[in-house]
Amino acid sequence: MTNQLKMKKFFIFSPFAFALIFIYLFKGQQAGINVLIFNLILLGGIYWTGRLNINNRIQLLLVSGSVISAVMVLIHGSSMAMAADIFSLILLLGFVAAGDIGLLLNGFPAALFGVVTAPYHFLAETARLTNQKSNGRRILRFFLVVLAPVVFLMIFTTIYATASPYFNNLTGGLLEHLEKFMEALIRYISPIDFWLFVAGFLIFIAFLSGKSHRFLVFFSENNGMQLLRKRIPFTGRMTNLKTEYRSGVVMLVLLNLVLATMNVLDIYNVWFNFEWNGDYLKQFVHEGTWLLIFSIIISIFIVLYYFRANLNFYPQRKLLLNLALLWLAQNALLAVSVGIRNMWYIHHFNLAYKRIGVYAFLLLTLFGIVTVIIKIRQRKTHQYLFHYNSLAAYAILICLSFFNWDKIIASFNADRSEKAFFHPEFMVTLNSSALPELMMTTKKIDRIEAAQTRKFDYYHQYMSLYYYKERVEQRQRDFISGYSQVSWLGWNYADYQAYNQLTDKQNP
User: Fold this and answer.
1) How many Å apart are CA 368 and CA 355, to the nearest integer?
2) Does the structure show a pLDDT above 70 at 126?
3) What distance in Å separates the CA atoms of residue 292 and residue 47, rounded to the nearest whole number?
4) Euclidean distance between CA atoms 392 and 224, whole angstroms
5) Burial of 433 (0-12, 13-18, 19+ CB in 10 A)
6) Which burial class, exposed, middle or buried, applies to 344 when counting CB atoms under 10 A from its CB (0-12, 13-18, 19+)?
7) Which of these ranges, 126-140, 311-325, 345-359, has the smallest mean pLDDT?
8) DSSP 8-state secondary structure symbol assigned to residue 404
9) I want to staple 406 with a disulfide (CB 3.0 to 4.6 A). Which of 23, 97, 269, 434 is the partner?
10) Is residue 102 left, alpha or beta, with left meaning phi > 0 and alpha meaning psi from -120 to 50?
11) How far apart are alpha carbons 144 and 142 in whole angstroms?
12) Which residues, in sequence order, are CB contacts of 131 under 8 Å at separation 6+?
């Protein structure tokens, strides 16, 4: 059998085989080894067809990210690792569909367009491979001329019949006939199997046949990352550039003074002399933190506005440049202050997802400030910023997948349950891998409740810790009884470890 014939058969039949494998991997299963197998089969398939270019740095990065995050799903079974894997595959689809599109951010619109165009390109390529002049063309023509219009006619007729009883009566009770047809169909085909098959089929043909267009590319590597001067003819009058320069100097002088005052107050009050004042801390962190992060982002855009074009080449730009660098340095200091605010919040109210997210966002913000400093000092383009900051954001997402945050939160908050606020409604929702850390004895509950009511006069408004204990124990019983029904496909190390810890406690 020739390679061409093998490729033809693979192209035509592999989406159907992949869809069946997709059902087998995910029907009734939790996330575990099945996610890693799915990634390896998908990546292997598109590599074998030549759609995957591992010589492209971005594609290689995304392949590595998807495999790493899939391994983290196997280890932790966490939603963060799943999110990292899904983002990696979506971005990879964009680059597979559009080729070399430069920036990582270009992958999102390219992936969307690739999914939309995949069915057409798959049918067209299938027609070409089967028989260019006879059967294949007839299949494609039949789909475009007959089948597609009939499908859309049925869709819209169903919509109109659902929306209007008069239209439904006119069509002879279409909804009733459709309902009977679906009931008969369900006897032979499970809806879960059907939709998993459709999802698996569409995912594979999107990677196999999806194509995008260059008009969806916002920035291209061909544009370059070094800023070039645009020559403007001299008119003999004071130029707009000089006016813009003076405006920038005045604005940055005033903004630096205001921010310096803010930073001095924060250093004194937040860094070294912080005192908790009850609910004041929530307002101080919830509203204050995000407002300050927003102000830092606005500050970056102000600098980018003034250094967007020829002010980068203005002969007397040194003063404006130094003011901008001072402004950015002060914003970096403000970001550190925001991190310290968040630290105090964690100290008094324990860990939560958003508080971890604040640190991840601050890390990205500080990286962004550094790249803006490099941009204005070395006269880089906006593409430089988008390129490196999108890579940094992706790297942070992958790094976050390395940790089982539910288990970390449960352990941290349980250890500090008598020192900081213990939120039972939140804690009881943490995933099953954290169950061993969530369990408490009656003596410990009494100590925690005494400490919480003494420290927080509103603690009685929250879930009773005895009810919390009942909820956790019920979850543990459900988890232990359900774990024996999990097949090898849904196995992950975190749940395996939790199961052993819980059963060891039951059978000392």
Assistant:
1) 20
2) yes
3) 45
4) 19
5) buried
6) middle
7) 126-140
8) -
9) 434
10) left
11) 6
12) 137
Q: For 148, how many CA atoms within 13 A lie in the half-sphere containing its CB? A: 10
Identify the sign of the CA torsion 322, 324, 326, 332.
negative
The segment with the largest mean pLDDT, out of 49-58, 140-149, 274-283, 426-435, is: 426-435
Residue 418 CA to residue 420 CA, distance in Å, equals: 6
Q: How far is CA 374 from the centre of its chain?
A: 27
Residues 348, 342: Cα–Cα separation, whole Å: 10
Please give the pLDDT value at position 409: 96
User: How much is the pLDDT for 257?
Assistant: 93
Residue 503 structure tokens: 């059963």
Q: What angle do CA 69, 75, 80 make, to 5 degrees?
A: 45
Contact 51, 96 (CB under 8 A): yes
pLDDT at 236: 44
Q: For 283-335, what is each residue's pLDDT tens digit? A: 666 666 777 778 888 888 888 787 776 666 667 778 888 888 898 999 899 89
Both tokens of 111, joined, read 């992936």
Mean pLDDT of the chain: 82
**Rounded alpha-carbon distances, angstroms, from residue 281 to 278, 345, 348:** 6, 7, 9
Neighbour tally for 99: CB within 10 Å: 16
List the alpha helices (DSSP H) in 27-134: 33-48, 57-76, 79-98, 107-130
What are the tokens at 366? 């500080």
**What crossing angle do the helices spanning 107-130 and 79-98 adopt, rounded to 10°?**
60
* Of 502, 375, 488, 377, residue with least CA distance to 438: 502
Q: Where are the alpha helices (DSSP H) in 267-317?
A: 280-282, 288-306
Residue type, 72: M
Distance CA 102, CA 222 (A): 8
Categorize the per-residue pLDDT at 238 as very low, low, confident or very high, splitting at 50, 70 and 90. Answer: very low
CA gap 284, 265 in Å, rounded: 14
DSSP 430-498: S-GGGHHHH---HHHHHHHHHHHHHH-TTGGGSPPHHHHHHHHHHHHHHHHHHHTT--GGG--HHHHHH
Residue 429 and residue 22: Cα distance in Å, rounded?
Answer: 29
The mean pLDDT of 473-497, rounded to a whole number, is 92
Question: What does the alpha-carbon distance between residue 45 and residue 202 come to, in Å, rounded to a whole number?
Answer: 14
Which residue, among 73, 75, 76, 77, has the nearest Cα to 88 in the 3D structure? 73
Residues 6 or more apart in contact with residue 338 via CB below 8 angstroms: 289, 292, 293, 296, 358, 362
Most confident segment among 99-113, 212-226, 297-311: 99-113
Taking residues 137-152, report their average pLDDT: 60
Enter the tokens of residue 434: 């954290």
Rounded to an integer, what distance in angstroms lies between the CA atom of residue 471 and that of residue 467? 6
Residue 237 Rama label (left phi>0; alpha psi -120 to 50; beta): beta
Is the model's pLDDT at 21 over the cut of 80?
yes
